[in-house]
Specification:
The complex is a heterodimer. By secondary structure, chain A is mainly α. In chain A, 80% of the residues lie in helices and 0% in strands. Chain A has helices at residues 3-11, 13-46, 55-70, 73-79, 81-88, 93-118, 122-130, 135-146, 148-169, 177-185, 191-219. In chain A, α6 (93-118) packs antiparallel against α9 (148-169) and α10 runs antiparallel to α11. By secondary structure, chain B is of the alpha/beta class. The chains are: A mainly alpha, B alpha/beta. The interface between A and B is medium-sized, with 25 and 33 residues.
Chain lengths: 225, 329
């Protein structure tokens, strides 16, 4: 064991970093959903064949989402530094990092939500229309509840992606396991620190995955239990 | 009353316009069960969707209780739709809601207070015979049970009309019979006017008062079921009533008579008695009959020698036995 590993172990450095990673992942995922969920619903609803087709709006939103989605996170992050500074007053540290994560993850989540919503059986939507539901009632009472299990699975996949982003975000001075692996491990030639961070990240991902899938399974009433 | 006047529906497509319906005129009277039959692709599903404007006609008018639906605002249209129930071939229940919550859905939409909605839904679920499955989810129900839930749901807001789009096409014969019986009960006891879309003549025969036969986007024939059934005027109606029979009977000479079995005692050896009593040779050209609980339903085309006296004897025998018959040409 390297001296750095001991030092991090004794001082609780690993624990703090794990907590930071979890905290940033959860917080950014949550904020990203505040933006991504309505955006995804809007994308699905305004599409041709959606519950309320508005082609020009759908096209415009689609292009914007695609621009953000096609930029590699590391590039997007550097490009968005001024935005972070504008919103949270600094372009460094965890708060700035959450801004970056939200900017990168929201369009991604919007697409996930859009595809979940589009899985809802067209016949069920037609039945709701035949019963005199308004567009908003269809969205709130049919589309979202009917796609709930799929939305939960999407949230799990999204949060794992965001967890991956948090590691990259350490380059702008954020904390977390990624930062520890890079600054204390890679840059100081402590391979054991890198690998231990990897193990911890793998564990977090496994837990998230397991918990999320169980939740999705439990909510899904289409499965016989 | 639902009136359809000069209704046409054209779907634009890259390969050119597709005419789904052209110049349809029909009236569904209050209290009746009106059937619309046609082969798949004839336009019947589009027609029923025009009745609540799920499809907007390209031309023509849809008038429900004097309201021209085409002139209504979106809000008014939603209100009208709440008074027209609809059920589907694939049931279309909300998969993530249990039976009770499914039946409550239209009441939520109509703004009925939660407790009242639950009470009303429970009554309806009881009426369709599913009180024991009230907490079940659609995935735990059979096809027939799902359709019963769909019927309860469609009736929740006390609609005046019920549109059924191939409602029994995904069900086996016994389940079909029980669903049709339920629909007839609803028509009789609640006074709900029912429009039935189907490709199966037996559905029409079982419950409908009047029928419109649709072929290639047009109405080929319209009339009382008993008339259309015993003496179909259009080729398509004949084909629908006796699938495969036209090709057999067209090439045969002699006098041909079509017999219609509409719930006669199936234990009676009718054809044997006919031969023995009338003392004539009878040839069965085509038969499509079914025995349901000791009663026969269906059609038979028989051939007898082309002789006026023999014909009279046979007709007298059939009349005496109360078998509906008509000359087949």
């Amino acid at each position: 064991m390297s001296e750095m590993f001991h030092q991090l172990w004794e001082s609780g450095g690993f624990l703090t970093a794990t907590w930071e990673t979890v905290y940033m992942t959860v917080l950014s995922t949550a904020i990203s959903y505040v933006i991504g969920l309505p955006l995804g619903v809007l994308l699905a609803a305004t599409d041709r064949g959606g519950v309320h087709p508005i082609p020009w709006l759908n096209k415009t939103l689609g292009i914007i989402v695609n621009i953000f989605r096609s930029m590699p996170f590391i590039v997007l992050m550097v490009a968005m530094l001024p935005v972070a500074k504008f919103i949270v007053g600094t372009s460094l540290g965890n708060s700035a990092m959450i801004v970056m994560l939200v900017i990168a993850a929201s369009p991604y989540i919007a697409r996930m939500v859009e595809s979940s919503i589009k899985e809802v059986n067209a016949g069920v939507i037609e039945a709701a229309e035949a019963m005199g539901s308004s567009t908003m009632q269809i969205i709130v009472k049919v589309l979202i509840p009917e796609s709930k299990p799929s939305l939960i699975i999407g949230a799990v996949i999204s949060s794992v992606t965001i967890l991956g982003y948090t590691a990259m975000a350490s380059t702008i001075g954020g904390g977390g396991l990624g930062a520890v692996a890079i600054t204390k491990g890679h840059q100081r030639f402590n391979d054991d620190v890198i690998w231990f961070c990897v193990v911890l990240i793998v564990l977090i991902v496994q837990l998230m995955q397991e918990f999320g899938m169980r939740l999705a399974h439990k909510t899904d009433k289409r499965i016989h239990k | 009353m639902i009136e359809i006047q000069h209704l046409s529906k054209v779907f634009p497509s890259a390969a050119g316009d597709i005419t789904a319906l052209s110049d349809i005129n029909l009236t569904v009277a209050d209290g009746e069960i009106f059937g619309i039959i046609g082969l798949s692709g004839a336009g019947k599903s589009t027609l029923v969707r025009c009745m609540n404007l799920l499809e907007r006609p390209t031309e023509g008018r849809v008038i429900v209780d004097g309201n021209d639906l085409m002139t209504l605002s979106k809000k008014e249209l939603l209100k009208v739709r709440q008074s027209i129930g609809m059920i589907f071939q694939s049931f279309n229940l909300l998969e993530q809601r249990n039976v009770l919550a499914n039946v409550c859905y239209p009441l939520e939409i109509a703004g009925v207070p939660k407790e009242d909605a639950k009470k009303r839904a429970t009554e309806l679920i009881d009426m369709v015979g599913l009180s024991e499955r009230i907490r079940s989810y659609p995935s735990q129900l059979s096809g027939g049970q799902k359709q019963r839930v769909a019927i309860a749901r469609a009736l929740a807001t006390n609609p005046k009309y019920l549109l059924c789009d191939e409602a029994t096409s995904a069900l086996d014969p016994n389940t079909t019979a029980s669903i049709l019986e339920l629909l007839r009960d609803i028509n009789r006891t609640m006074g709900v006017t029912i429009v039935v879309i189907t490709h199966e003549m037996k559905v029409i025969d079982r419950i409908c008062d009047r029928v419109a036969v649709i072929d290639q986007s047009k109405i080929a024939e319209i009339g009382n079921v008993s008339e259309v059934f015993t003496a179909p005027k259009s080729a398509i109606a004949r084909e629908l009533i006796l699938p495969g029979a036209t090709s057999v009977t067209a090439q045969t000479n002699g006098h041909k008579i079509r017999l219609v079995f509409n719930g006669e005692d199936s234990g009676k050896p009718l054809v044997s008695s006919l031969i023995l009593e009338c003392q004539i040779p009878v040839n069965i050209l085509f038969a499509d009959t079914k025995d349901i609980e000791g009663r026969s339903y269906g059609h038979m085309v028989i051939q007898i020698p082309d002789d006026a006296r023999m014909r009279e004897r046979v007709e007298a025998f059939l009349d005496a036995n109360r078998i509906v018959h008509s000359e087949e040409v």
